[in-house]
Structure formats: structure tokens, C-alpha cells
Amino acid sequence: MSYLILLVLVVGPLVLVLVALADRRRRSFNGSYAGEVVDRSASTGIGTYGPTTSHRMRIRTDDGCEFTVCVDGVTYDRLSIGSQVMRTPATRRPVRLKRAP
After folding, report:
1. What is the distance between the alpha carbons of residues 59 and 69, in angstroms, rounded to a whole number?
2. Residue 69 to residues 9, 17, 51, 65: CA-CA distances in angstroms?
3. Which string of b and e fits 45-81 if b means at least 16 CB within 10 Å?
4. I want to staple 52 with a disulfide (CB 3.0 to 4.6 A). Which of 2, 11, 29, 47 is the partner?
5. Does residue 62 sit in helix, strand or coil?
6. pLDDT means per 10 residues in the chain (101 residues)?
7. Percent of all residues in the chain with a pLDDT value above 70, rounded to a whole number
8. Contact, 94 vs 57, CB < 8 A?
9. What does the pLDDT read at residue 37?
10. CATH dotted code for 32-96
């Protein structure tokens, strides 16, 4: 009986952690989207090593869904409201779509 309790208390949380990590990895690879930047914001805070800045962009996809993504400062500066963007599993951050001539 005590081995069963030990098994549940040790293996149960380990399995939950592994499932959570696998789900996070799956979602990061399937995070493809295409849409338009509808809002962007930057917030500054004080961290352990000094001031930090967080950049966020609100994306509206082609099918009407809206969500927020965190981006780095370079991407934040390159993309403005109204920019058409796309992210594929091969890219780490959204990139501006080229306009047809």
C-alpha cells in the first residue's frame, strides 16, 4: 500500500510536468498565423538587472481571431499598426508580408 502512495505522489507530478512541456512545445511549433497588427504596446519595469521593456502586439488573423504576441524590440520597431504579418513554424517572430506590385 505504501508503494502505491509513493508511486502516485512521485510519478503523478512527473507525468503532469512532462505532458505540460510536450504541450508547450507542440503549441510553439504550430503557432503559424497570418494577419494584421491592430495594436501595439510597450511597458517598462524594473528587474533584477535594471529596467526592462516588454513589447506586445495585438494581431487580428484573416479569420477574425485576435490575440496578443510578445515580440522583441527590433520586431516592435519594424512593424506598425496596419502591417500585414505572417509567422510560420520556421520563423521565431512575425515578419512583414511583401506587398504585390
Report:
1. 8
2. 36, 24, 21, 13
3. eeeeeeeeeebebbbeeeeeeeeebebeeebbeebee
4. 47
5. coil
6. 78 85 65 89 90 92 87 92 87 76 49
7. 88
8. yes
9. 94
10. 2.40.50.660
The residue whose grid cell reads 527590433 is: 74
Angstrom distances, CA of residue 13 to CA of 10, 17, 37: 6, 6, 39
Distance of alpha carbon 32 from alpha carbon 38, whole angstroms: 18
The Cβ of residue 94 has, within 10 Å, a number of other Cβ atoms equal to: 24
Of 48, 40, 90, nearest in space to 66 by CA:
40
Residue pLDDT, tens place only, 87-96: 887 787 888 8
Block residue for cell numbers 504579418: 85
